[in-house]
Structures are given as C-alpha cells and as structure tokens.
C-alpha cells in the first residue's frame, strides 16, 4: 500500500504512515546539523528525498507537539528539548502515524452467520490490543538520541 510500511502479512496489515519515518529523519537531521548550519525545510527535503511541502507539514506537527522549535531567520529549526527526552512514541503520536483504528486494519465484513466470521473479533481483538500496547511500550523506550548515535 502506497505511503505505508507493512510490518505484518497474512491478512492483517500492521501499518504505520511514512510520516513517522520522515519525522524521525527530520529529527536526526536537525540534531546532526544543529550548530553547523541553519536548517531549512529545503535542506531536510533534500536529505529525505520528498517534497518540501510534505516536510513543512510534518515540521508543523512536530512543533505543535513541542518536539521542534521553528523560527524565521538564521535560527531556523531546532530541537525544542534534548534528543534524550524525545522518544519514538512521542514522534509516533505527534505525526498521527496510525489512524484512529490502531495499528491493525481489520477486514471489513466478516460474515456474522459463519461460526468463525461471527466470532473473529471476539477471538482476535484482545490479542491485537495487547500487541499494540507492547509495541507502544517499546517505542517509549527508544530515544531520538539512540537513533542519531548510529549516524
């Protein structure tokens, strides 16, 4: 599916919007280039390989979440708090990486008259919630500083 990363197959798609990885890339660039040169959406766009309009939209989401500081002029774009205090979960929630339905997109019309189709939600929904909870807990452990340390 365009614009998404598929992490699971076999009928259920675990999808996170590419806005998430673009946002992490933005933060990595900001941390790397901060103090070396003014950081602009054009510089970020060039590094990421996407249109600057997409970068600017994500920048605004990160600013609204208190992750980035954006000023006009030489100061440009900077982290609003230390990279050690920004988790992947913070980024994930800031850019609304997943729609309101959660990580998993359940197929739309299981047959309620089928013995499996009528009970598949009851059988599967709790497990999917547990997986999402574990996924989000792990994201809360990984900091932007962990990501940038590898660059």
Descriptive report:
- The chain has a single domain, classed as Winged helix-like DNA-binding domain superfamily/Winged helix DNA-binding domain (Arc Repressor Mutant, subunit A, Orthogonal Bundle), CATH 1.10.10.10.
- It is built from six helices and five strands; from the N terminus they run E-E-H-H-H-E-E-H-E-H-H.
- The chain has helices at residues 18-33, 41-48, 52-64, 88-94, 120-141, 144-149, and strands at residues 4-6, 13-17, 68-70, 77-79, 104-105.
- The strands form two sheets. A three-stranded antiparallel sheet has the order 1-2-5. The chain has a two-stranded antiparallel sheet with strand order 3-4.
- Strand 3 and strand 4 form a beta hairpin.
- The relative contact order is 0.16.
- The model is unreliable at 1-13 (pLDDT under 50).
How would you sum up this structure in a few lines?
This protein is mainly alpha-helical. The chain has helices at residues 18-33, 41-48, 52-64, 88-94, 120-141, 144-149, and strands spanning 4-6, 13-17, 68-70, 77-79, 104-105. β3 (68-70) and β4 form a beta hairpin.
| Biggest sheet record | 3 strands, antiparallel
CATH fold-level assignment:
Arc Repressor Mutant, subunit A
What string, H for helix and E for strand, traces the elements in order? Answer: EEHHHEEHEHH
Overall strand count: 5
Cα-atom radius of gyration: 18 Å
């Amino acid at each position: 599916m365009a614009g998404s990363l598929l992490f699971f197959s076999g009928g259920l798609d675990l999808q996170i919007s590419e806005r998430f990885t673009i946002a992490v890339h933005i933060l990595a660039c900001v941390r790397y280039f901060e103090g070396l040169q003014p950081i602009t959406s054009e510089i970020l766009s060039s590094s990421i390989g996407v249109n600057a309009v997409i970068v600017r939209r994500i920048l605004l989401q990160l600013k609204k979440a208190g992750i980035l500081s954006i000023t006009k002029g030489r100061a440009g774009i900077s982290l609003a708090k230390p990279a050690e205090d920004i988790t992947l979960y913070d980024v994930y929630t800031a850019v609304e990486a997943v729609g309101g339905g959660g990580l998993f997109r359940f197929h739309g019309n299981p047959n309620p008259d089928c013995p499996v189709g009528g009970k598949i939600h009851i059988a599967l929904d709790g497990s999917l919630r547990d997986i999402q909870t574990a996924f989000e807990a792990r994201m809360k452990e990984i900091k932007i500083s962990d990501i940038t340390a590898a660059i």
